[in-house]
Known about the structure:
heterodimer, A: alpha+beta, Cytochrome Bc1 Complex, Chain A, domain 1, five-stranded mixed sheet, B: alpha+beta, 2 domains, six-stranded mixed sheet, 43% helix, globular
Amino acid sequence: MDFRRHRLDNGLRMLVLEDHTLPILSFQVHFAAGSRHERPGITGISHLFEHMMFRGTKRLGPEEFSKIIQARGGVVNAFTTQDHTTYFENVPAEELELVVELEAHRLKELQITAESLATEREVVRSERKMRIATSPFGAVIEELFALAYLRHPYRWPIIGWDHDIRRLTLGECLDYFRLRYAPNNAVIVVAGDVDPSRVLDLIQRHYGDLPPQALPEEAVEPDPPQRGERRAIFKKVAQLEAFFAAFHVPGLEDPDVFPLLALAHILSSGRSSRLWRRFVKTGRAAEANVMLDPPPFWPKDPALMVLYAVVAPRGSIGELEEGMWEEVETLREGRFEEGEVSKAKKGLRSSFLMRLQTLFFRGLLGGIYEIKAGGFEKAHDVLKGYEGITPERVQEVARRYLHEDNRTVVTLRPVSPEENERLGLLE
Amino acid sequence: MNLPFKPQDLVQAELPSGAKVLALSYRKLPLLYVVLMLRRGAEGDPEGEEGLADLTAEALTFGTREKGPEELVLAVERLGASFSASSGWDGSFLQLSGLSEDLEELVELAREIYLEPSFPPEEVQRAVERRVARLVKSRDEAERVADELIWKEAMEGTPYAHPTYGTLSSVNGLNREKVQGFYSDNYTPKDTVLLLLGNEDPEALLDRGKGVLEGWQSSSAPSPPKGMPSASQGRKIILVDRPDLTQSQIRIAFCGLSRKDGRYLAFKVMNYILGGGGFSSRLMQRVRSERGYTYGIRSTFHPLGIPGPLIISTFTPTESTASALEEVLRTVEEFSREGPGEEELQEAKSYYRGNFPLRLETPTQLAKEVLELELYGLPLEELSSFPERVGEVKAEEVIAVAREFLSLDAFRAVVIGRVEAFEEAFKGLGSVEVRSFEDVSA
């Protein structure tokens, strides 16, 4: 992956990756604007603002931006994470100038009004209900994060608390936009069938006059080390009991990321994995899995590795959880099956290569490393990281992170609709 | 237009047994993708045994004459490869993907799994139990229950009127004998297509593929009749009570077309303008962007071996349920009356033309398109001629399908939510039936 980096005088960074295999390109703008840049009271502002970026400019009506790109055959969207917000257009190569011009235009002449904010606030509340309130486990996982983190902004959901979504003001949105969407807080990626010198010219022409902003010093408060297990029960209408257990693990740039991914792979990837064979195959769990995002999506700051299981009908949640910890204990003791670690290494490498098939993913890989880990060059270390995994390192990280004092567990306890009513409806 | 593949990279052969082999070269990354497709899917499920085709497909991966269940899984996963098998409506698919350095082993594994499955009784029994557990768990997903119910209503009277993975009562009755029976009756060379996609010369891949299926002989069963959906008449609205939900799921189904229908592209363009085209669609514009009723709304066209439905899906907070449904119906009514505007039509067509290379960027995307044509007996040339043909779709063709199929006199609707909050408002919309959540998710 041969990205070339350039920087404009206003601090805007750009990465260009040439690939002429197909007449297409992926254009991406990454802003260091995620839920970690929020504070209590304005949770969800990064995500809400992502929506507002599609609500029109002085020249374009609401959603017209997307319509124009789609009418050229393009795919346009955006997503907000804990660490950044990303806008992208995957388009035929001949549309390069159009997307550069349109993306720069909405930064310069975005038009947001009290009316459009009011409509979009309702859209986001509907999205929150979909992701959290009416999803089988969304509210449980929300509680898990809020319990596992005491101080760090990862404790609130990316979409924000419902109360904050209802309350956010136009002024707060505009302040956030001015600072967080400054050129010196952004990385542009262009990957595909392009001529790099033309890309530079276009970006200089359209983005060069954006003024940089004095960015506030980062004030993210780290969580203190956990000093003992935390537990909670969450009641809602559900068919089956489940538990979700979070362990604190380090952030993206730590070398322990790779053996931890191997650990997750050994536990939960494929039908030769431990959780599948022990719990799912035998009918003890309806589902048993590990949640851990691979690079570049792994969070910037210390993250959570979540092990969870949903009990099978007539099964026992207590036995299921006990069984899970027995399995973890064998990893802590370094009891691997023959070929288990090398299978994980090969599986991680193969799924990484699969993802590299699209220009979109290659762009994300470079762009996200650049915006949250200080440089796309670190993306080159991913395959090396997988190569360097050894049974000793896997055991070492199992011992370091998968222990009781570092654990937070939330158990989902099903209740009747009547009891649910008594507890109050989920918003 | 630049094509994402060269036509000479795709080669095919038919064996004397009737089996077909396709090979496609992909030289960008060292990957290999193998698919064995059977032209028989969940529409072939015997009555009362819904989910059998899908279970049989999965059971292929439980072991072979030579390899026990654990041994087979390890043989695949130690290569860093993955495999899975499942049934769609009209076809069943066994897929293996891995690294091209393991081509020999992966191709041989695919052969063994497809031609020599052993269906170990204990494994099949456990799979039935897992499926039951998953079905119980999925009752918590109101969106899924809504999808299943609207599908059942839309396809009533055809062999398609059930979920591909079956229902709680049908899956409970499945066993090894039935799986073995389905396999013997349906897995025949005549109905099998093998696709190999890798970074080798296409002819070399084709030879390799022929080697896999050569010598396989078996008698062919006649294809069962597929039936036709009964033309739905009148409006039917089903409200399902889930008082704990603060957001309702809404589905509306209209009759559509089969994949082979000559009006397929006109219908596709029509659907894009109505609700398939994201932010360019009328439904998104009206229901989300102007009213803020929902985060998501779309219409999806499901072409099948027989006419498949067009289904509108959305969700909205309890308090806006009736208004959202009314807005959707108003939008549909206007569209079917007026047809698309010239600009909308041009935008939809240019979307499909421009999006063509993006849609075929990866080998799996390419394989999916090739197999769909093969499954419905359409010429493979349709893949490369797609941009041209979609460009030729005429306004009157789009208007004709909108008028014929989007009639507010004939649709099915399902709403799952806190019924007491909106039941009254639905009274004027036609025949309304209220059902309990337990009934519809059994």
